[in-house]
Automatic annotation (TrEMBL):
Keywords: ATP-binding, Folate biosynthesis, Kinase, Nucleotide-binding, Transferase
Purpose of the protein: Catalyzes the transfer of pyrophosphate from adenosine triphosphate (ATP) to 6-hydroxymethyl-7,8-dihydropterin, an enzymatic step in folate biosynthesis pathway.
Organism: Pacificibacter maritimus
Designated name of the protein: 2-amino-4-hydroxy-6-hydroxymethyldihydropteridine pyrophosphokinase
Assigned protein family: Belongs to the HPPK family.
Annotated metabolic or biological route of this protein: Cofactor biosynthesis; tetrahydrofolate biosynthesis; 2-amino-4-hydroxy-6-hydroxymethyl-7,8-dihydropteridine diphosphate from 7,8-dihydroneopterin triphosphate: step 4/4
InterPro entries: Hppk, Hppk_sf
Domain of life: Bacteria
A Gene Ontology biological process term: tetrahydrofolate biosynthetic process
7,8-dihydro-6-hydroxymethylpterin-pyrophosphokinase domain residues: 16-166
Family annotation (Gene3D superfamilies): 7,8-Dihydro-6-hydroxymethylpterin-pyrophosphokinase HPPK
Record-listed E.C. numbers: 2.7.6.3
GO molecular function: 2-amino-4-hydroxy-6-hydroxymethyldihydropteridine diphosphokinase activity; ATP binding; kinase activity
Length: 195
């Protein structure tokens, strides 16, 4: 069952993950992310909280410089698919090139969650969440999937999310951000540090 627990007219809360590991015309990665956050306000997206910047080891190892990551909580009247379109335009504005999966990038903005939405439905969400690691490297969904199917596995998302919203509750598992973070193996946390 799909849950569309949002209103087209009220402000809805969403969680974004920002990341990058290549310089842009704005300068270093932190400068690019900060400028992208400033740009959100011109697109009907109000930032209500931001984590610190974190340095994260590049994955897969050896694919480039370490990443800079940040999580932001936002409010918006835009529905999820329109919001994704806006984020893709902002990424392009900051020279994001889409090519090889998990290749270096100037800016990546992911919608981690949008209210309690499960999109497009629980079956598709579960299919993408359960993909084997090798398949994840080559497969990209053709549609928006919410919550982000990898959120439970990623220290570089959960650590900053816990800083700004530790009580955020996953709409499928029901676990809080802090519970998910506490369950991460050491390999997913090692090397992640505040800048």
């Amino acid at each position: 069952m799909q849950r569309d627990n949002y209103s087209q007219f009220a402000k809805n809360r969403a969680v974004f993950a920002f990341g990058g590991n290549l310089d842009s015309s704005e300068g270093g990665v932190a400068d690019t992310i900060a400028s992208a956050i400033d740009t959100l306000g011109y697109n009907s997206i109000d930032v209500t909280a931001c984590s610190k910047f974190y340095q994260t080891p590049c994955f897969p190892e050896g694919m480039g410089p370490d990443y800079v990551n940040l999580v932001a909580i936002v409010e918006t009247t835009l529905p999820p698919h329109q919001l994704l379109d806006v984020l893709h335009r902002i990424e392009a504005q900051f020279q994001r090139a889409r090519g090889v999966r998990w290749a270096g990038r100037t800016l990546d903005i992911d919608i981690l969650a949008y209210e309690n939405c499960i999109l497009p439905n629980l079956e598709v969400y579960t299919e993408w969440r359960d993909l084997p690691a090798e398949t994840q490297r080559n497969a990209t969904p053709e549609q928006l999937i919410l919550p982000h199917p990898r959120i439970e596995d990623r220290g570089f998302v959960l650590i900053p999310l816990c800083e700004v919203w530790p009580d955020w509750r996953h709409p499928v598992s029901g676990k809080t951000a802090q519970m998910l973070c506490d369950a991460l193996p050491a390999s997913e946390i090692n090397g992640i540090k505040p800048l």
